[in-house]
Amino acid sequence: MKQRNQAPKPVKTEEDEYSHLKKQDYEDEIEHREFAMFWDSLDLEAGWTPIIKLFLIRLACTLSQVHLKKHPDEIQQGKEIAYKILYEQSDANINGVQSFSTWEWWKGYNLRTFLYPLWLSLPGHLLKLLNLDTNFLIVNSIYFMHCLLWVVGDYYCFLFVRQLLGKREAIAAAIFSVTSEHVNDYVLRTSANGVEGNLMFVVFYYYLNMKPKIFDKNLSLLTLAVTLSFAVRSSSIVGYVPLALVAIIQDPRFFVPILVAGLSIAVPTVLLNLVSDAYFYGYWTIPQVNFVYVNVVMGISKFFGEMPWYYYIEHIYNEFCEIESYGIPVFFLLSVR
Q: What is the pLDDT of residues 89-105, one digit of tens each?
C-alpha cells in the first residue's frame, strides 16, 4: 500500500513561541527569563499551570505555618463560624457542637455577616455527607477555600501591576508577595482582612479598565468585587467611594453606568447577603448598619485603643519590613530597565 508523502512539520523557533507577545514583552521575556528567579513559574498569564503552582505554594505555607501562631480574628471571623454553620451550633440544639462566639456576633450587635464563613464551610458539607468530616479534613478544607480566594488576589495583583508597569514588575511583585513574612503571617489566616485585601486587587484591576458604558463588563465585575468586600468587611467601602467620585469627576459619563451597576449588581447582592444573615442569625439584621452604629455612634471602638495618625509612618519598618525586606533589592533589581 502506497504511503502518502506527508509534508514535514515546521520546526518551532523561539520567536514562534512568543509570537503573541508585544515587542517590549518579547524582549523582556528573552532578556530576563534566564536569570530572574521564578520567571517561568510566576508568569500567571501563561496558563493554569503557574496559577496551580502558586496555589499549592500558598496552601503549603498555610498548612505548615498557620498552626504555629494563633490569631483571634482567624478563629472568630472564619473557622469557628464555619464550624457553627456545619454543625448547626446553637443553645437550642443540644446535639450540635457548642461554640463560643465573640460579642461581634451577639444579638444587639451583629457586626459580622455569614457570607465568608459560609464559603469556608462548603467542602465540609460534602465531607459530612461522605462521613469523612474528621477534624484534620474539616480544618484543612477551610484553609483550602481560603487559599482559593488568596490566589484570586494574587492573580489580579499580577494583572494590575502588569498593566501599570510591565510583566517583569508583575513577576517581581509576585516574588515579593510569596516571600513576604507579613503576607504569610496575616493574609494566610481566615480573617475578613485577608478577603478584603485580595478583593482590593480585583477592584483596582477593573478600575483601570472600566469604560463609561452601561453594563460594561469591567465595571460590573468591579461593582461585584466592591459589594462582596463591603459585605465581608463593612469598613472597606470607605476607600472605594472616593474612587467612584474621582471617576465621575474625570469623566461625567461614568455617573449613569455606576448608578446602574449599583442598582443591578450591588443592591441584589446585598439583599441576598441580608437573607443569608437572617437565616443564620435567626432574625433580620443589617450588619453594615450595626457596624457604623456600634463603632461610630456608640463609640465602642475607642475601647480597643486609639493610635495617633502618624502611627504607621513611625512603625512602618517593624510592621511591614521584617524578613520580607530582603525582597526589596530583588524587586528593584528586576525593575531596572
A: 555 555 556 667 888 88
Whole-number Å distance between alpha carbons of 158 and 42: 9
Asked which of 60-64, 159-163, 201-205 is least confident by mean pLDDT, the reply is 60-64
Q: How far apart are CA 73 and CA 71, in angstroms?
A: 6
Q: Transcribe 76-126 into DSSP letters.
A: IIIIHHHHHHHHT--SS-TTSPP----GGGSTTT----SHHHHHHHHHHHH
User: Whose CA is closest to 232, among 195, 282, 285?
Assistant: 195
Whole-angstrom distance, CA of residue 18 vs CA of residue 121 = 42
Cβ-proximal residues to 124 (8 Å cutoff; 6+ apart), any chain: 82, 86, 133, 138, 141, 142
Structure-model confidence comparison of residues 194 and 321, the more confident one: 194
Could you tell me which residue, 283 or 68, shows the higher pLDDT?
Answer: 283
Quote the Cα angle for 231-75-303, to 5°. 75
What is the residue extent of each domain of the chain? 40-211+285-335
Give residue for cell 444573615: 277
> If you average pLDDT over residues 220-226, what whole number do you get?
94
pLDDT digits (tens, 9 = 90+) for 109-136: 888 899 999 999 999 999 999 999 888 8
Residue with cell 478600575: 207
Q: Are 292 and 234 a contacting pair, CB within 8 Å?
A: yes
Terminal alpha carbon distance of the chain: 61
The pTM of the full predicted model, rounded to 2 decimals, is 0.79
Question: What are the residues whose beta carbons fall under 8 Å from the beta carbon of 17, sequence distance 6 or more?
Answer: none
Q: Alpha carbon of 52 to those of 142, 145, 152: distances in Å?
A: 18, 14, 11
Residue 152 contacts residue 12 (beta carbons within 8 Å)? no
Rounded to an integer, what distance in angstroms lies between the CA atom of residue 264 and that of residue 220? 9
